[in-house]
Amino acid sequence: MKSLLVKINNKLNAQGGFLKAVSVLVGGTAFAQFIGFLCLPILTRLYTPEDYSVLGIYIAIVSILAVISCLRFDIAIPIPENENDGKALLLLSFFSNTIFSIILYVLLFISYPYIQHYKIIDQLSYWIWLIPLGVFVSGFYSALQYWATRHKRFKEIAKTRMTQAISGNAASMIGGMFSVGFGGLIIGQLLNFSGGLFKLAISANRDLAVVRSSPLKATFARYRNFPKYSTFEALANTSALQLPLIIIASFFFGPDIGYLMLAMKVLGIPMGLIGGAMSQAYLAHAPEFYKSGQLYGYTVSILKKIFKLVVIPFSLLALISPYIFTFLFGQNWSGLGDYILIMIPWYFMQILSSPISMALHIIGEQKTALILQFFGFFLRVIVLLVVLFVDSKFTIIYYIFSGFIFYVIYMIFILILVKCKGT
């Protein structure tokens, strides 16, 4: 028995402790996803597909803005060896996020009288004022999460995900029970963005108290490629995913956006469970393999692990999706299973490629990453607009298909570049 435990421990600590890190993150995320999935049958009976459509618009806008609020200094936090540089990057993330959020409120205050009658703004109603707040807490959490990743505090990250799941779903259910409409979903999502902030902040504050200051100006100059290239890369990437939802909602507001939103939420369970954990663990360990010239082999081994983890769950989901979701979520959601079935290839490729995408930043290929994301934006947004005006009935199908095509091309380019520079 003892030898078996030793073997398990050795396996978990192999490759710099990657599997151990993943197991901790997956455990916390699994709990969060399990809570979310248990609550869905209740939430889909408290809220309509149209309510989820408005939630989808809110999430799309916040996600597009939040990904650039720290000027991408947040994703650089785990990379430097010097702790002072890591601290400076964390502070730069905080400053950027705070200033950006204030600017959003000022712009919204100035522009609101002129935009309030637009269809999407009208649908959001006064909940639009929670968009800058959502951006602020998302950016703050992201910076603190990457600081925890730098110190390999995966248990803390896992606990915050549990907090997010419990607080977010509880708020949404309470809002639904008191018939506050889609506002309950938005409050729940806001808590889902920010859950666990204080726990991560306390840990970070203890760290910063014993770390000497690092010149912010010098660190900004040293990592200038992150705001210079990665900001636009992230904006293009997130916009390619979220902007079509806003565009489609502008033309087809109704249950279809709700179906898309909930299908993305269901398929996001394995993405959040495995992809998110793999991304954090990969970023924590990949710089070490890059320095030793073994990044390509490490990256391929991670891809194989992800494939083995997801191929069976996705195959089972494809088999049951046309039959099970109406029973689980109620008659209002009878079309959901068909959406999930045709979206599976897209999410399968996304879950494979997303964790290793950080390799482009580790090998200094921010410019290439930017070009790839601009290509994705063109494929998924610009061409979508063409499809919308040529024959609008194919708009949603094209949106789903373009996601699959992009992630196939994206993963191929990542592997080619890592093989050239990471070996």
From TrEMBL:
Keywords: Cell membrane, Membrane, Transmembrane, Transmembrane helix. It comes from the Bacteria. Its main location: membrane. The chain crosses the membrane at residues 21-43, 55-77, 89-114, 126-144, 165-187, 232-253, 306-328, 340-363, 370-390, 396-418. It is found in: Cell membrane. PANTHER family: POLYSACCHARIDE BIOSYNTHESIS PROTEIN (PTHR30250:SF28), PST FAMILY PREDICTED COLANIC ACID TRANSPORTER (PTHR30250). GO terms for cellular component: plasma membrane. This is Polysaccharide biosynthesis protein. Coiled coil: none annotated. It is a multi-pass membrane protein. Signal peptide: none annotated.
